[in-house]
Write a structure and sequence with these properties.
Strand order of the largest sheet: 2-1-3-4-5-6
Largest sheet: 6 strands, antiparallel
Shape: globular
Strand content: 15-25%
Number of strands: 6
Mean pLDDT: 88
Distance between the termini: 21 Å
Helix content: 40-55%
Order of helices and strands: HHHHEEHHEEEE
């Protein structure tokens, strides 16, 4: 049976593939050969990436989530999953960090304060992507595809900043999940560890 860390990392590795598609197409490095399908494909991958953030949240809080949602294995809507997880763990959302070693060799971290997809923007982005998966309304003169492309680039960057290195607070626990999305010890794949938060701010120890 897979551990919660394995399932979490599987979500993150698949998310990396999807976000890379968004980055490649939105930057013009790859194309389907047509602008509108390009951007609709990006919106699909971006929305699925948000769903993977939600599924990772289930993985990290599976026992309590299953108690609240016995049929959790049928869940698919990222926005609804997000709302449900908040009921059992209001602090489940990834917290972007940068890590370093202090003068004594102790692993330390600092939270990143800007440039990432915030919890309050998750639902808004999820809905925006969903709207653009429908055919473009030719009577809506407010829609500009160049604006869509620019937002795709911005949102892709915000998700990368959110997840590159992040920590997740576990429900009713002094432990956290610490994640490195490009762990060289795991061939550049995502790696996750259970960490115990100490009394001093910014300090963690591996469990």
């Amino acid at each position: 049976m897979k551990t919660r860390l394995q399932r979490y990392c599987e979500c993150m590795d698949l998310l990396k593939l999807r976000i890379d598609i968004v980055a490649q197409i939105a930057s013009g490095k790859k194309t389907t050969g047509s602008l509108v399908p390009d951007q609709e494909l990006c919106c699909l991958q971006l929305r699925k990436s948000l769903e993977l953030i939600a599924f990772a949240g289930i993985s990290a809080n599976l026992d309590k989530y299953a108690e609240l949602r016995p049929g959790f294995y049928r869940d698919w809507n990222g926005k609804r999953i997000f709302t449900t997880i908040k009921k059992i763990n209001p602090d489940f959302y990834p917290i972007p960090i940068k890590t370093f070693q202090d003068d004594n060799g102790q692993l330390r971290f600092e939270d990143i304060n800007d440039g990432f997809l915030r919890k309050e923007d998750f639902g808004k982005l999820y809905d925006w992507c969903g709207q653009l998966l429908h055919s473009f309304n030719p009577f809506d003169k407010s829609m500009q595809w160049k604006d869509v492309r620019q937002r795709l680039i911005i949102e892709q960057t915000r998700i990368v900043t959110l997840l590159n290195q992040h920590r997740c607070v576990l429900a009713d626990s002094d432990e956290e999940i610490w994640v490195n999305m490009n762990d060289q010890g795991h061939n550049g794949k995502a790696a996750a560890y259970i960490m115990r938060k100490k009394m001093r701010p910014g300090e963690l120890s591996v469990c």
